[in-house]
């Protein structure tokens, strides 16, 4: 099985990857070259059928985030690490004898430079570092290096962005591209291959769909046939509902299809649609039944998907979030056992902890995140406090008159 990998990056990246893999028969690299990483999103829309998309770095990947939401194949990007920084610095030191204190450098994560400094016991420093952020403009990165050179604080620049390199060359400033080590590039290409194989295997798993009307004697067949046509699915009528038979890959594609989502929006509000996937027919049926139970509880039309890993996706099209419906991390199993909270609530609680910049929160913050009443959130907090998974750390005065609200902190592993 030959894996097709779409490469999105500058010309030199694509050409190097093609050169390193020219003798391989197990993969085919299809290059999509840009002059500016901002064009990465537009290039995604031109990709011919392939198995995975590989970006040259985190910046083009960030620019393409909105575009890749609409594709149903995996994506990956070449991560910059300490090897890349070290190889680049070694090249500049041995060939040009630059003073590292007089070099400006832009990197995705400054921690890589910090690690190098620590490994060398602080004997070198990097005083001029620009940390790249999502949606950074090329002009702002260029201006950073240019200003330091103009003020005669630096003798050269190292950049992680090809477009910045091209612009700085025009100014006459000595500039060098970050070197991606051959081993890192080959490792990432192999990772892309394995990720694509796993996705293809998962996509071929069986998927069962269930369509149900909440009103008695509702005529569902016209909608069933339309949905089945979209999904290339077989269907059958059962007592109180219809079953659809298709594959996981088709379901993953269809929930991102704008035409299908428009059809879903036109359906009567009391129609419920749910899918389950699994490694065998029985698992898919059970997951579809569980997903339908959630869809039935959701007001209005809805579509839920419970996958083979017990992650609940939806309701589409309002949300593409996923909630873990099983708990297998030992520390979280303990939380679920002690508090009697459901795996779904434990999963949401972990996601709540991960999503917040501030450690402290109120019962109202939790209720808004979980989309439950404040009383329900308070009951959950009471159970968690009983086993010291949550603690009160202070109070917050209400904006208007009223009793102060307790401030809580999670005391469980959220990562």
Describe this structure in words.
With 415 residues, the chain is an alpha/beta fold. It folds into four domains: 3-78 and 182-201, 3-Layer(aba) Sandwich (Rossmann fold), CATH 3.40.50; 82-177, 3-Layer(aba) Sandwich (Rossmann fold), CATH 3.40.50; 205-324, Alpha-Beta Plaits; 330-410, Winged helix-like DNA-binding domain superfamily/Winged helix DNA-binding domain (Arc Repressor Mutant, subunit A, Orthogonal Bundle), CATH 1.10.10.10. Helix content is 44%, strand content 22%. The protein is built from 17 helices and 17 strands. It has helices spanning 11-20, 40-44, 58-63, 65-68, 82-96, 111-119, 138-150, 162-171, 182-203, 221-231, 248-254, 258-266, 281-297, 330-339, 343-355, 363-370, 374-386; strands at residues 3-9, 27-33, 52-55, 75-77, 103-107, 128-131, 156-159, 175-177, 206-213, 234-238, 241-247, 271-277, 302-306, 311-316, 322-324, 390-396, 405-410. The protein has a seven-stranded mixed sheet with strand order 10-11-9-12-13-14-15, sandwiched between helices. A four-stranded parallel sheet has the order 2-1-3-4. A four-stranded parallel sheet has the order 6-5-7-8, covered by helices on one side. Strand 7, helix 8 and strand 8 form a beta-alpha-beta unit. Helix 7 (138-150) runs parallel beside helix 8 (162-171) and helix 16 crosses helix 17. The protein is globular, with a radius of gyration of 26 Å.
